[in-house]
Design brief:
By secondary structure, this protein is of the alpha/beta class. It is built from 19 helices and 15 strands. The protein is globular, with a radius of gyration of 24 Å. The two termini are 18 Å apart. The structure holds 2-acetamido-2-deoxy-beta-D-glucopyranose (NAG) (4 copies). One 2-acetamido-2-deoxy-beta-D-glucopyranose (NAG) binds next to loops. This is O-fucosyltransferase family protein. Keywords: Membrane, Transmembrane, Transmembrane helix.
Length: 500
């Protein structure tokens, strides 16, 4: 019955922490380049210090990538993650795919705070411009660093199999910034006003360049400004490149908003790959890479297995499911095995955020029905693991209060951020964190005192999802929640049993 086997806890997850960043460039070259670039930027900084920072001087500085960067020959891709964690995870998967198709090194972003950056609504043609989105992501990234809360998404999601099989090349955003802009992000945490103002000046410069504030810069940055209002990216799907998509804004919307959007399907490789205007740019910057089905179409990306290239097919296949790192998986398994210790149902109830507030009743009804059917079949009490955004003190007046007080029929479990199990998982994440998962220039990184992750990363949501993947009596999620979708995926791919 119970498919939790500690003995089969995934060895591959634990054993592989390869030195995989930037495998193509020898260590010595990078160190040398870092020095050169640092020198270059120090110079440009001192020169600038004599002038008031008008947008004009900023701009002239921005319009160049150092020749060293161009000479690197390595091509990079970044994008703007947004919304909640599972949304960011979807984008991350799409970004891996895009990087694979365009053969660029993917710049791995941090996990952004829940809804710190929002996109808007694609179907309503009301979204933030890719440029604005990139700027918001950059500013939030700096906040995360200054708050000691920066954690890379690759410290939570295990991409080591993809990287070690060379399906994708990656670099951490922090390392990219220190190489590309010659800024050590460590400076962000120094409590010295002089350092701070020089840091702020430089980080803004770097952010503007990366975000494409002044547009694309020859050989340096290509800023993709096509978003879901005008573009659905495809790849090798017949000869539909340039064709109209089936979903278009209706007349009413066009009139009301005075817009003339036309949505076209475009092959991403033809548009941004070899032979295109984007090819020579060292950095390719997307906005959002979020996509979802809408009215028989996709909102932004429609790339699937029909692709001929076996490498891309394999990448599509492997990015369908990316597991959590072992520190999280083992915490979730431990809770299921050692605390619940019985077959259980997982209920994920999203009750507060936005649209979900209005559907509380439906969410409770779904759970109630499932429980009634379980009661007829199995032994009592029914063990239930509950994850919800409704704070515990508000449970009493809801169906959850009924469940908890009916101990004859139900035994309810849940996790809190300050539970020992969650705290231990956070600690392990922090220890594994930067140095272990990302060792870009091997021994050189060891003597850097990164000020990242000064606080324990928040592991609750990930541990909860893992527990739910272990629920043998079933899963009741909230319709329309990306958390729910992700749990279904974890269950389908057997995260808990360790076979994927
Ligand atoms: C479950 O926990 C028990 C002790 O509580 C342990 O002996 C057993 O090995 C664990 N099994 C799995 C599959 O983790
Ligand atoms: C992909 O990029 C790498 C590094 O820039 C290069 O060595 C390789 O030949 C490229 N592959 C293809 C198929 O273009
Ligand atoms: C930073 O410096 C200010 C005064 O300059 C001080 O009040 C504050 O506590 C310092 N913060 C840290 C984290 O050291
Ligand atoms: C609609 O937009 C066009 C340009 O995009 C502009 O010339 C025109 O004045 C606008 N009409 C209204 C009613 O705002």
């Amino acid at each position: 019955m119970n498919n939790i086997h500690r003995s089969t806890s995934p060895q591959t997850l634990i054993s592989e922490k390869p030195n995989y960043r930037w495998p193509l460039i020898p260590v010595s070259v990078i160190i040398l380049l870092s020095f050169l670039i640092f020198y270059y930027y120090s110079l440009s900084l001192t020169t600038n210090a004599h002038f008031p920072v008008s947008s004009k001087t900023l701009k002239s500085n921005m319009n160049q990538c150092s020749s060293q960067i161009v000479a690197l020959g390595e091509k990079f891709l970044w994008y703007a993650p947004h919304s909640g964690f599972n949304n960011q995870l979807l984008e991350f998967k799409n970004a891996i795919l895009m990087a694979g198709i365009l053969n660029r090194t993917l710049i791995v972003p941090p996990i952004l705070d829940h809804h710190a950056v929002a996109l808007g609504s694609c179907p309503k043609f009301r979204v933030l411009d890719p440029k604005e989105l990139r700027i918001s992501v950059w500013d939030h990234m700096i906040e995360l660093i200054q708050g000691g809360r920066y954690i890379s998404i690759a410290e939570i999601i295990d991409i080591s199999p993809l990287v070690s099989s060379s399906l994708v090349r990656v670099i951490d955003l922090r390392d990219f910034v220190s190489i590309w802009c010659g800024i050590s992000l460590d400076l962000a945490c120094l409590n010295d006003s002089k350092v701070q103002s020089s840091f702020n000046f430089r980080q803004k410069q770097c952010g503007s360049l990366l975000a494409g504030v002044h547009g694309s810069v020859d050989k340096c940055v290509y800023a993709v400004n096509d978003d879901c209002r005008t573009t659905v990216w495809t790849h090798h799907s017949g000869n539909e490149d340039g064709m109209l998509d089936s979903f278009q804004p209706n007349e009413q919307l066009k009139k009301k908003k005075n817009v003339t959007y036309i949505r076209r399907r475009r092959d991403v490789f033809k548009t941004l790959g070899p032979g295109s205007g984007a090819e020579s740019a060292s950095l390719l910057a997307f906005g959002s890479l979020f996509t979802a089905p809408y009215k028989g179409s996709q909102s932004y990306m429609d790339i699937h297995e029909s692709v001929q290239d076996p490498r891309i097919r394999s990448l599509i296949d492997k990015t369908k499911f990316l597991p959590f790192v072992s520190e999280i998986v083992s915490a979730g398994k431990e809770f299921a095995n050692a605390t619940i210790k019985a077959p259980f149902l997982c209920a994920q109830l999203r009750l507060l955020d936005g649209q979900f507030k209005n559907h509380q009743k439906a969410a409770f009804n779904g759970l109630q029905q499932k429980l009634e059917s379980l009661q007829q079949k199995g032994p009592l009490p029914i063990h239930i693991f509950l994850m919800t955004d409704l704070p515990g003190e508000n449970w009493a007046d809801t169906y959850l209060g009924d469940l908890i007080s009916d101990s004859l029929h139900y035994k309810v479990y849940f996790l809190r951020e300050d539970d020992e199990l969650v705290r231990q998982a956070s600690k392990k994440l922090k220890e594994a964190g930067y140095e272990q998962r990302f060792v870009p220039y091997s021994d050189k990184a060891a003597d850097k005192k990164y000020c990242f992750n000064q606080r324990l990363p928040d592991a609750l949501l990930y541990v909860e999802q893992t527990v739910c993947s272990c629920a043998t009596l079933g899963f009741v999620g909230t319709a329309g929640s990306t958390i729910s979708e992700n749990i279904e995926l974890l269950r389908k791919f057997g995260l808990c049993s360790g076979q994927s």
